[in-house]
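Minutes, methods subgroup
Present: GH (chair), OT, SY

1. OT presented the first of two proteins processed in the latest run. Sequence and structure tokens recorded below as shown on screen.
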Amino acid sequence: MRGRDERRGSGTPGRWPAVAARAASLARSGTRSWIRSSPGTHIWLLVIGITSLVIAAASQDLETFLLHRTSSNIHQLTKHPLQSLLISGFWIENPSSFLLYAALFEVLHANVERWIGTARWLFTVGFAHVAATLISQEIVQLSIEDHSLPRSMKRVVDIGVSYGLAAAAGILTYRIPRPWRWACLAGVLLFFALPLLTGGTFTDVGHAIAVAIGLGFRQFTHGRPAWDFARVPEALRRAAAAVTPGPVSRRDAPGP
């Protein structure tokens, strides 16, 4: 009995390196497949990573110049409308937030792009970014004329990717199967509406517009399957089976 246990235990140490190597190989393959299936998301994320490094390495004066020069505020929209609308979507104000944005890109943008295709995803988030920016800045302009906001708001820093993320959150709601979809929809609406009900800023208005645009593009999801949560346990079992090697044969087993 003791000899049988020793022979059984002697094969265990050699098994875990094989499991780790197999898991690493599957992870690399899965990562490559994920990136290839959502190229727009990861190209966009790469550019944001580069611009974040530029901001992090810049002096205070240069940082201030870059943030204002690339903003889609009233001043820049008046002087360089197309340029400011495009460039403002590739910068974030705080480089330390890059990892958070990277996670949001993977959860929202990558899933939407994989689901409805790169062209439809790009049109949705691009349209939302432009429309939310123009409408929110028009509200700023009207508030300045009404003396509700100071004239300095014409040069406020207005950059970032949050309008596109809001649109992606809106359209991704349709991938949630019923009845969970309604709870998800209520959560999304509450998340973006609550700031407006508690004295939101022009940016909060832009977020609300962007998520409404994402929800309004439901036709882009027609014919696209929703997630099937019932298949998750089986998918996990298949993944575990792919990582774990089969039983060791008597010929390969160590020991006498």
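2. SY then presented the second protein from the same run.
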Amino acid sequence: MDNEDKNLQSETGKEEDNNNQNVGNIGEDEQIVVADDKEEQAINTSQQIKKAKLRLGIISTVKFFLGLFAIWLVLYVVTHYFYGFIVVDGESMKNTLEDGQVGIIQKYDKKGSLNPGDIVVFWSDEMNEYLIKRCVAVGGDTLSMSDGVLKVNGEVIDEDYIREPMTEDMDIDKLTLGKNQMFAMGDNRNHSWDCRELGPVDMKDLTGIMVVNLGKIGITRTTAIALFIVVMVVLLIVGFLQDLAASRKIKAIPEEFRNFEVEIDSSTCTGEMTIGFRNPKTHKLELMELVKDNKDIKAYCNKYAQEYRHLLKR
């Protein structure tokens, strides 16, 4: 009887050991499953962050090039159809314009008006360059010059803008301009190659009329280049300081949200909206605050150095 009890106890002990071992194996399997789930979630989150970084990088690049294209388009339209800059090259317009001075011209079209006395820029096929001179007669006018005295339609023109009396014999017999012609000469008559040698200018070759002489305030080719360099340096410094300030603000954002923009969830019955960062793992807003208007939205985004223009209420 004793032997039977001992055998029964032995068998029972073995069963308990096997059960305990099985329970231990189940616990280990559960731990492995949990660890696998966490690892899979971490991989998914990492992949989401990478995709978000790539998406934001592409968007930022596209925005950058679109911005450059918009700036180029505006400058092209303005300078091609409305206004442009010219740099004086030479001394033919002394003392009105000095060599190297910068001016702004208004682009000429058929509807525009050209008057004697205007400083003009036109293309010369003979010189193969743009020339800047003073218009002295327009279409339909009859002009002549003798002993340095200019007459237009029989009237003597008081040219108080010329640098000095003419020393060369450059008389002009009576010349009547066509409807689409003009006659222009340099203010420095003794050192100017102009319509006296080239003949009248066709209006189709007229580029523009000077409206502002920036040389009067000291802007020349050299100062314009220097000013451009200074402006670019200032912009770079400002950009650096803004990036520095933004980097400090970004430190306030938990690391898992630094690659994501803020979002507005929905409006409440009181008109307030919930704003926060979208958690890539739970897809819920976090770091939430209530905002009432654009001012609150800007304050929240500036707090975390985020772009806010796409969030503003229309």
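Chair's summary of item 2: The longest helix spans residues 2-82.
Next meeting: continue with the remaining queue.
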